[in-house]
Amino acid sequence: xxxxxxxxxxxxxxxxxxxxxxxxxxxxxxxxxxxxxxxxxxxxxxxxxxxxxxxxxxxxxxxxxxxxxxxxxxxxxxxxxxxxxxxxxxxxxxxxxxxxxxxxx
Length: 105
Hints:
By secondary structure, this protein is mainly β. The protein has one domain (7-96): Sandwich (Jelly Rolls), CATH 2.60.120.10. Helices cover 0% and strands 53% of the residues. It has strands at 7-8, 10-16, 20-27, 31-32, 36-37, 42-46, 50-55, 60-65, 70-73, 78-83, 89-96. The strands form 3 sheets. The chain has a 5-stranded antiparallel β-sheet, with no helix packed on it.
């Protein structure tokens, strides 16, 4: 289940090593990621204000996001993300490949 992807979002890979993968995602209005599943837990940091549409396979949720806002999701999330606004949408996605390190203190 996903949005009809007429315009694909554009990923720019900033870092990919044993610990993490950092990707910038750019979405012109109407662009989507396509259906995908996350293999690691991840954190998203919004670079722009946006009207983010999230398709979970059954329902579509519209979320107003603000530049600088962040959120985290667990491993295994399946969805399609679409820019439902009339301005470009961009965010940084940080996927965490390793479990948290124990405190050294």
